[in-house]
Design brief:
Blueprint: H1 3-10, H2 39-43, E1 53-55, E2 58-60, H3 75-95, H4 101-119, H5 130-144, H6 151-170, H7 173-195, E3 200-201, E4 206-207, H8 209-221, E5 225-227, H9 230-244, H10 260-267, H11 299-305, E6 319-327, E7 337-348, E8 353-362, E9 365-379, E10 384-391, E11 396-404, E12 409-414, E13 421-431, E14 434-443, E15 448-459, H12 467-473, H13 483-486, E16 493-501, E17 511-522, E18 527-534, E19 537-546, E20 551-558, E21 563-571, E22 576-581, E23 588-596, E24 602-610, E25 615-625
Antiparallel strand pairs: 1-2, 1-5, 3-4, 6-7, 6-15, 7-8, 8-9, 9-10, 10-11, 11-12, 12-13, 13-14, 14-15, 16-17, 16-25, 17-18, 18-19, 19-20, 20-21, 21-22, 22-23, 23-24, 24-25
């Protein structure tokens, strides 16, 4: 790969209605879901013809719904975020008291206890860097001085200003962290206590959606919120309806006292021996996922099927993060560049993999957006942590590494680094809410080819558009669609699947299993993300075309811990994909093909033979599009 490509890769391996208006003095925020456009809203004619809405007595223009710092470049996306943030901000200013010193101290003690519980030792306590915080505050106020800043951008900047001011008033890390983590929860709690209603789960946080609805209804009834643009109004209501459809949290489990990720951390068992403590979100034990009747006799396979306790070290990443990233001057990057990254991480496939979705943009240039999805796990066979990374630029990366419990650090290296270079990707947990990272590529001649550093900060759950939805919508689809990507169209859509195993060494009696599969374009059309569900097995898989290898690449992540990479070529004459497994068992000869039959069914055939001519596996997969 070229140095330019690796520089782009580094930027995301860290790890996410409105024209000009005057800045608001006191905004506020909440959502509405099921109600149609109110008569008052539809009948009102705005005093400002360019306004798409009136919010808290101020006109809202299309440009007000944009935010450079958050990478929001679409009013259809930003209108929801603006209304929610503005109404909530207004509510909190009126209804919520400031944090007391006792509350700050109690939170800090809880945070330190959670970190100690996770690592088995007392975490180091960093120094409060007053000069750094003051510099950040000065930079924030400089941005706020720009009268043309969009309302949504100003709301975010005003929140940063309050947080930094609070930290400087108290001059402690504890105050800074307590404000960032507890104030959003305090606002949600006050809103929930006032209005009640449905609370939904958001992977690693909870949100009082029913209370948001009531707040918005009150705002519309009182005239504090009026829509003038039917299209953006519908966009807002559609998103809020989707928001409210999430899984409800039973009232007895509603708790806004601490962030959900911290509550989970406190409930995990304390560490034993040298094994990092903590249990992946959504999993119960680190025991065999197959029942005794299906457990194989092969000890190596048995170890692979059992969920490794080493996965617990990845649990610290679960949740939502933002990162401030600096790409320093180096051979590949002559000029320093700053980035802002948003990341959401959660365990998938029965807790076997940590999935990250990420949105990254250059600070001050929101149109320059890259997105990524990546998967992390622990491979018992190699005793290594494994990361697979896919970016909207078309980049694919594969890294392996180790976890150092003593220093609370991960260290990775690229499996296929650029020629004549070495590389090191490291992340160290400073505390439960802060992770420091770096990525360095060095030439064999000693020159620093690339040098990037970042700090991840954990974000409390806030009202607004989940990162997953932004991740799906932000970005520019590739146009024109490359011919290679068009060939993957046969994997798109919802399908019924049938797995037919003919008698073989692996399955002596043969077997048949039925399930479902789906495939969708992701990362601006650069990759395809698929999922397959069978009675005793689930998988996620990513396909794309690697312009460096000039080949299709297909990586499958199985719920049994198996990761399988295949390299493929399209055979135009036969109208078939020919796949070759990467790093497969050396004692097997394997062929794999995928084709579309005349009736529209997509059929894949995998056959592997042993060196003595026996059939190790003979599998046909038939996928029929659902009607």
């Amino acid at each position: 790969m070229s140095s330019r490509i690796f520089a782009l890769l580094a930027t995301v391996l860290l790890c996410a209605g409105c024209q000009k208006s005057r800045p608001p003095s006191s905004p506020s925020a909440t959502p509405q879901t099921s109600q149609a456009a109110s008569p008052a809203a539809s009948a009102t004619v705005p005093a400002d013809p360019a306004a798409v809405a009136t919010l808290l007595g101020r006109p809202v223009h299309r440009s007000d719904c944009l935010s450079r710092s958050d990478g929001i470049g679409s009013p259809e996306v930003g209108i929801q975020r603006l209304i929610l943030m503005a109404l909530m901000d207004d509510f909190c200013r009126r209804e919520v008291a400031a944090l007391t010193q006792d509350e700050i101290d109690a939170f800090w003690q809880t945070l330190q206890s959670a970190a100690e519980r996770s690592s088995g030792k007392k975490p180091p306590v960093g120094e409060f860097d007053e000069a750094k915080i003051q510099a950040q505050l000065d930079e924030t106020r400089e941005k706020l001085a720009n009268k043309d800043a969009p309302w949504l951008e100003r709301l975010q900047l005003e929140g940063q200003e309050r947080s930094l001011t609070f930290a400087l008033e108290h001059k402690t890390l504890a105050a800074h962290e307590a404000y960032n983590q507890l104030m959003p929860l305090r606002c949600q709690k006050a809103l929930y206590e006032k209005y009640g209603g449905k609370v939904v789960g958001m992977q690693i946080s909870i949100e009082p959606v029913g209370a948001y609805q009531k707040l918005i209804e009150d705002a519309e009834t009182s005239g504090q919120l009026t829509f003038h643009d039917p299209t953006l109004e519908q966009s807002f209501r559609n998103r809020m309806n989707e928001y409210a459809q999430r899984t409800e949290v039973p009232p007895e489990f509603v708790d806004f006292s601490l962030p959900a990720w911290l509550q989970i951390s406190l409930r995990r068992p304390a560490p034993t021996g040298t094994t990092p403590a903590g249990q992946p979100l959504g999993t119960a034990t680190t025991t065999n996922q197959n029942n005794a009747a299906t457990k194989p006799n092969d000890p190596d396979l048995t170890r692979r099927l059992e969920k490794p306790t080493e996965l617990e070290a990845l649990a610290q990443y679960v949740g939502d993060w933002t990162s401030d990233v600096t790409s320093k001057q180096a051979v590949w990057t002559p000029k320093e560049v700053k980035y802002r990254t948003s990341n959401h991480a959660e365990f998938v496939l029965t807790g076997r993999y940590l999935q990250h979705i990420e949105v990254n943009h250059i600070v001050g240039e929101p149109e320059k957006v890259t997105k990524a999805i990546w998967f992390q796990t622990f491979d018992a066979a190699s005793s290594k942590y494994v990361t697979w990374f896919f970016q909207s630029t078309g980049i694919i990366a594969h890294l392996t590494g180790t976890w150092d419990a003593a220093t609370q650090s991960f260290h990775y290296t690229d499996v296929e680094p650029p020629p004549d270079t070495t590389n090191k990707f490291s992340e160290r947990s400073r505390d439960a809410a802060t992770i420091d990272g770096s990525l360095v590529f060095s030439g064999n001649d000693g020159r620093k080819m690339f040098d990037m550093v970042w700090t991840r900060k954990r974000q409390a759950g806030v009202a607004g558009k989940p990162l997953a939805e932004q991740w799906s919508e932000i970005g520019t689809p590739i146009e024109p669609i490359p011919d290679e990507m068009k060939k993957l169209d046969l994997f798109i859509g919802q399908k019924d699947v049938e797995f037919i195993h003919r008698p073989s060494v692996l399955v002596p009696q043969g077997s048949t299993a039925k399930g479902t599969a789906s495939g969708q374009w992701i990362l601006d059309g650069r990759f395809l993300l698929g999922q397959t569900t069978l009675p005793n097995f689930q998988s996620m898989w990513v396909m794309g075309y690697d312009t460096n290898k000039k080949a299709f690449r297909y990586v499958l992540f199985g719920s049994n811990g198996r990761i399988e990479e295949n390299i493929g070529q399209w055979n135009e004459a036969e109208r078939v994909f020919d796949w070759k497994q990467v790093n497969g068992p050396p004692d097997l000869t394997r062929t794999s093909t995928t084709r579309r039959l005349d009736n529209g069914t997509v059929e894949s055939h995998i056959i592997a033979n042993t060196q003595d001519g026996k059939t190790h596996v003979d599998l046909t997969i038939k996928a029929t599009r659902r009607k």
